[in-house]
Each structure stands twice: as structure tokens, then as C-alpha cells.
Automatic annotation (TrEMBL):
Protein name listed in UniProt: Flagellar biosynthesis protein FlhF
One cellular component term from this protein's GO annotations in UniProt: plasma membrane
One Pfam family matching this protein: SRP54
Protein family (similarity comment): Belongs to the GTP-binding SRP family.
Membrane topology category: Peripheral membrane protein
Task performed by this protein: Necessary for flagellar biosynthesis. May be involved in translocation of the flagellum.
Biological process (GO), any one: SRP-dependent cotranslational protein targeting to membrane
GO molecular function, one term: GTP binding
InterPro entries linked to this entry: FlhF (IPR020006), FlhF__GTPase_dom (IPR047040), P-loop_NTPase (IPR027417), SRP54_GTPase_dom (IPR000897)
Organism listed in the record: Anaerobranca gottschalkii DSM 13577
Keyword vocabulary terms for this entry: Bacterial flagellum biogenesis, Bacterial flagellum protein export, Cell membrane, Cell projection, Cilium, Flagellum, GTP-binding, Membrane, Nucleotide-binding, Protein transport, Transport
SRP54-type proteins GTP-binding domain location: 174-365
Length: 369
């Protein structure tokens, strides 16, 4: 096994370097986000320390002599990086606009102490409408001794009943899990984390099936994780191959099914996938969403993917946000349990379950009276 470390501004910047140095079968085994100080946490720059690994066979294959040819500029990679930068800047701009707009329209009837709490909620990323409702409920209580404690109770009462439904029984029976979601949210890495959790922590026998025949790299990535975990991985290009894979996995307690990412705007493709999905006999369907996407953009995404009747959500990229109010937006708007949160690229470590108390503490933890 060969391991190399990279320091980059964006995780995707490391990918071409990793492929060049370690081969196309290399995997990221550890990431560490380092933040440089900014203005009140707003514009601090992120750096990433990344560890990647490949076995010696993959390394030798990558070092085989190649025919002499002129190097081709990696336009696709550069375009991908530029698109990611644009998307991140757009999300940051939307969040900033929401904050500034919310601060400009503080309800005039709020007394100073409540205005301060309203400003804090807006700054944390909670939508204006939801922030106003929370402050109004707080005022109705009429208790000004410990407003934040009262606010915690209000929020807990709202989100705890929703999150309590997001529990998978640890039973010795077969469960089939399917993951759907838009492109770029990290479904394949997430399914590897779920598989590792089932194998290493719950000691369940399991198998993996990928329906993602659009991206060769995704299937190969899942196979690498399968080799590490010593679990079988099957690529199903059609329903017959899927059913054959199920027969081969009939002695497994947990079966995880990965799918290709789809744009919520491509309704035709999603409807085709839905026809396929209806025949998979899944026990749980997880809609995977990125917490970095603001609620106004998540609403149309959720509306389209709701045709899969998701059991609940998995929220990814929690490590990439500094404000947690969007969690409250997501939970109270969609009213779906969140089964897992992912917090980085590391398999199996960067996945966790958060309670309602955990989430509220993240949102309100930075308030100072």
C-alpha cells in the first residue's frame, strides 16, 4: 500500500494529482479541513490536507510506459473546478443575501432583547420566516430570564418528534437500502460509509449493488471499498442483473443499492429511474442532500425527488458549513427524519447520527447574551 499527502484549496484539485501519482484506483482515506482566520468567520479560507492510498499493483500499472504523445490540457477537470467554485460562491452569496435582507427587515415590534435573538438566528442561516415564528413563540412564553433555554425547548418540541423516527432497528433480518439524490452530493462515498458501519460496528453481513452505469469511476470506487471491507460488489445494468445480484446476496443481512446522480430538472430520467426503483423491493429509501445547499434551492430538488417516496434523508458535507441554521430549515420544512450526517471524506469515520439536542446545540451554541 502506498500513501501520499496533498495540500489543496479544493478537494477536487487533488484528484488529478492522485490519479497521476497513484493511479485511477487510488482512494482518499483521510481529509482534514484547515481554516485560515477571516472576518468574523465569514471569509476565512479553507485548505484541505488529503491522504490518498493505492495498492502496489495499481501503482505498478499506473507506471507502465505510455506511448509518446503531446500532453492534453485537462480542460474537463478545470471546467469542473470552475463550476464547483461558481456553485460555492453562489451558495455563499445566497446565504449572505438572506442574512443582510433579514437584518434589514427586523420586525419593528420586537423589543431589543428579541431583536438580538432574531439577528442571531438569521446570521446562523435560519430563514426569515422561521426566525420570526421562533421569536414570536418565544415572546408568547413571556419569560425573559433565560430566553435561550426557552428557545431550545421550543425548537426541541418542533424537531425531536421528526428526528425520532429516523432509527433503523438493529435486527438480524434482511434490510435493503437505496440511495437517490442529485449529482455531486456524495452518494457513493456515503454508501461506502454505511456499509463500513454495518460491517465493522454492527457486525452485519452485507453486499453492495450499484446501478450507476453512467460513471465508470463510481462503480470502480465502490469496488475498491468492497475489497477493503471484504464484501461483494455487483454492477447491475438492468433489472435482470439486479435480481441476479440479489440472489447471490440472499444470505446477507444488509444490502445497499447505489444509483447515479440525477438533476431534479431532468424529470424524464427521474421517471425512468422511478419505474426501475419500484421493482427493487427496498425497505429504506434515503434521499441524499447536501447541507451546503440553501433551503430555497433544496425545495424544488426535494419536490422532484419525492416521487421516490423517501423514508428519510441523509445530509452530507456538514463539515463544510460554519452555520447550522439550515439544518433547522430542512427538518421543519420537509418534516422527514434525518438518518445520518456525513462530515468528510473518510471511510468509515465521517458519518454520524445527531440527536435533536445535538442539532440545537450546534445552532444556538454561539449565542452570547
Amino acid at each position: 500500500m502506498r500513501i501520499r499527502k496533498y495540500i489543496v484549496n479544493k478537494i477536487d484539485e487533488a484528484k488529478p494529482q492522485i490519479i497521476r501519482d497513484l493511479g485511477k484506483d487510488a482512494i482518499i482515506i483521510h481529509t482534514n479541513k484547515i481554516r485560515a482566520k477571516g472576518i468574523k468567520g465569514w471569509f476565512g479560507k479553507h485548505y484541505f490536507e488529503i491522504l490518498a492510498a493505492a495498492d502496489e499493483k495499481s501503482q505498478r500499472e499506473n507506471l507502465k510506459p505510455q506511448p509518446n504523445r503531446q500532453p492534453t490540457p485537462p480542460l474537463e477537470t478545470k471546467n469542473s473546478e470552475l463550476e464547483e467554485i461558481k456553485e460555492q460562491l453562489l451558495e455563499n452569496q445566497k446565504l449572505l443575501n438572506n442574512v443582510l435582507d433579514g437584518l434589514e427587515h427586523i420586525p419593528s415590534h420586537f423589543p431589543p432583547v428579541y431583536s438580538k435573538i432574531y439577528k442571531f438566528l438569521i446570521n446562523e442561516g435560519i430563514s426569515q420566516e422561521k426566525a420570526k415564528k421562533l421569536v414570536n413563540k418565544l415572546r408568547e412564553k413571556g419569560q425573559e430570564n433565560d430566553l435561550i433555554q426557552s428557545l431550545k425547548k421550543i425548537m426541541l418540541k418542533e424537531i425531536q418528534p421528526i428526528l425520532e423516527k429516523g432509527v433503523i432497528p438493529n435486527e438480524n433480518k434482511v434490510f435493503r437500502f437505496g440511495l437517490v439524490g442529485p449529482t455531486g452530493v456524495g452518494k457513493t462515498t456515503t454508501i461506502a460509509k454505511l456499509a463500513a458501519h454495518s460491517s465493522l460496528n454492527e457486525r452485519k453481513s452485507l453486499g453492495l449493488i450499484t446501478l450507476d452505469n453512467f460513471r465508470i469511476a463510481a462503480a470502480e470506487q465502490l469496488k475498491v471499498y468492497g475489497n477493503i471491507l471484504d464484501v461483494p460488489v455487483y454492477v447491475a445494468n438492468n433489472l435482470e442483473e439486479y435480481e441476479l445480484a440479489l440472489k447471490r446476496l440472499n444470505d446477507k443481512q444488509r444490502i445497499y443499492v447505489d444509483t447515479a446522480g440525477r438533476s431534479h430538472k431532468n424529470l424524464k430520467e427521474l421517471q425512468e429511474l422511478k419505474k426501475y426503483f419500484d421493482k427493487l423491493s427496498l425497505d429504506y429509501v434515503f434521499l441524499v442532500l447536501s447541507v451546503t445547499t440553501q433551503i430555497d434551492d433544496l425545495i424544488p430538488i426535494y419536490k422532484t425527488f419525492s416521487l421516490f417516496n423517501p423514508t428519510g434523508l441523509i445530509l452530507t458535507k456538514l463539515d463544510e458549513v460554519d452555520r447550522y441554521g439550515n439544518l433547522y430549515n430542512i427538518i421543519t420544512h420537509f418534516k422527514k427524519p434525518i438518518y445520518y450526517f456525513t462530515t468528510g471524506q473518510n471511510v468509515p469515520d465521517d458519518i454520524e447520527v445527531l440527536t435533536a439536542e445535538d442539532i440545537i446545540d450546534k445552532i444556538l451554541g454561539g449565542y452570547h447574551a
